[in-house]
Amino acid sequence: MGNAYRRIRRLRGEVDGTMPENKNSEFTAFFTFSQSSLQDYFDCPRRFQLRYIEHLAWPAIETEPVLETERRQQEGQLFHRMVQQHLVGLPVEKLTPLANSPDLSRWWENYLGYQFELDGCTKNTELVLTAPAGSHRLLAKYDLVAVLPGRKAIIFDWKTYHRRPKDEWMAARMQTRVYRALLVKAGAHLNGGTPIQPGQVEMVYWYADFPSEPTRFPYNPAQFERDWDALTGIINEIANLRNFPLTEAEKKCAYCPFRSYCNRGGKAGALDGSDIEMETAAAEFNLNFEQIAEIEF
Ligand code: SF4
Fold first, then answer.
1. Rounded distance from Cα 45 to ligand 1 centre (Å)
2. What is the chain's pLDDT, residue by residue, as a tens digit (297 residues)?
3. Is 230 exposed, middle or buried (0-12, 13-18, 19+ CB in 10 A)?
4. How far is ligand 1, taken at its centre, from the CA of residue 247, in Å?
5. Which residues is 202 bridged to in the sheet?
């Protein structure tokens, strides 16, 4: 690589992740954080920079085989839509014909057969909450928040993973931290105008392929304080960052579409169950990104 070319790439932050000062200021003025962008930063600061500051999208495929990955993502999105429509009152008979593949039909049957604890609750589907967090705003879009005013608020999130991830892995995801904290911070209007207390919140990941094994995460005031401090701290850190280093955990690169920008290999990670957490993280991004993109402002 010639010196002039290297200088230009360095100015664009393409060589070592260093940002020219004005580039990060432009980004900081308008950006709304979400669990997806924070997860990207947590996984790899460089990925955050390429995706949200440079706005580079899908320069390489994330997982092999490509068609199988796309099929799973599309079916996952359709399943989310079917459940949302059912929760707002569309009759089962109208929705069931949409479950026209083996995966969708199994997920749908599992959903209809599961007893969700929604008695007496108001059902808030596709709910968007946002609140100031540090120097920016934080936003989350929930599949369902079921509220029994003054008593409890349960966050439900539907997952169409083909393997059930470990609870510890789910506990550490940004989604688990962002969703519960933001509900406490910005959910008063769902609770008759009174702030929801951390002890009233629970988050449930319901796995369409493992209906009787949901993961449940209760919440408490100490966890809320810890989460909110951590989230605002990370947001402030990103806003002031000039250097976005590449992750040292190189196995993440196999499932990352930015491999070519980082010289981290040309072959996509396999969708073969050999690394369920990496596969899950790759699939997760596409679902969440689409959902957030619809409502980003
Ligand atoms: S390829 Fe690796 S280092 Fe580059 S953005 Fe992706 S995860 Fe980060």
1. 8
2. 334 333 334 333 343 445 555 556 556 667 899 999 999 999 999 999 999 988 886 665 555 566 677 788 899 999 999 999 999 999 999 999 999 999 999 999 999 999 998 999 999 999 999 999 988 999 999 999 999 999 999 999 999 998 899 999 999 999 999 999 999 999 999 999 999 999 999 999 999 999 999 999 999 999 999 999 999 999 999 999 989 999 999 888 888 888 888 888 766 555 555 555 655 665 554 444 334 333 232
3. middle
4. 6
5. 154, 218
Question: The tokens of 123 are what?
Answer: 């059902």
CA of 264 from ligand 1 middle (Å) equals 7
Count Cβ atoms below 10 Å from residue 286 Cβ, excluding itself.
Answer: 21
Enclosing H/E stretch for 49: none
Amino acid at 272: D
User: Using CA atoms, how far apart are residues 189 and 195, in angstroms rounded to an integer?
Assistant: 8
Nearest CA to ligand 1 atom 4: 262
Question: pTM for this one?
Answer: 0.84
CB-based contact 128:187 (threshold 8 Å): no
- Residue-wise DSSP of 77-96: HHHHHHHHHHHTT--HHHHG
d(CA 141, CA 205): 14
Q: Which long-range contacts (CB under 8 A, 24 or more apart) does 140-145 make?
A: 140/34, 140/35, 140/178, 140/179, 140/182, 141/34, 141/291, 141/292, 141/295, 142/179, 142/183, 143/80, 143/83, 143/84, 144/83, 144/84, 144/87, 145/183, 145/187, 145/190
Q: Which atom of ligand 1 has the smallest separation from the CA of 253?
A: 2
Report residue 10 as tokens: 């360095």
Place of tokens 């209809």: 112
Query: Is there an atom of ligand 1 within 6 Å of 50 CB?
Result: yes
